[in-house]
Amino acid sequence: MKHSSVIFSVFICASLISCQSSSTSNDRERQLQDSLSMSTEHTSQTALDWAGIYQDTLPCADCPGILTTVKLYEDETYSYVAEYIDRKTVVLDTGKFMWYNNGSVVHLKGTDIDTRYKVGENVLFQADSSGNVMESEIAEKLSLHKVF
């Protein structure tokens, strides 16, 4: 009888440990899912007021600059205008843009342009084909600031 009560006690302890281990595992899994959903919820696409007009004069090798205007619309379309200062050259393009890098980079690909911008707070940073922003002094000169 004493032997069976010891076995019963061991069985009860093992069951309790198993339940606690399972609930700890479930808690960890829930925390991981919550953190993953938070990381996808807080992107430039969802957390910033990205729609609007961005403009600045970008550097030009053989002219005083390029007045560049990008309009991003809520329906994920864009308008792009680049006016070369002291020239009669204007690049116009419109189209639908796509979000990349988990909603942090917009890709404007049209007839005359194929460019990416990392979306920041009231600013578009010129990005490379992988969506990375250059880490240099010129990076600031290639950014467009929100004007409206």
TrEMBL record:
InterPro entries: Cu-R_lipoprotein_NlpE. This is NlpE-like protein. Gene3D superfamilies: 2.40.128.640.
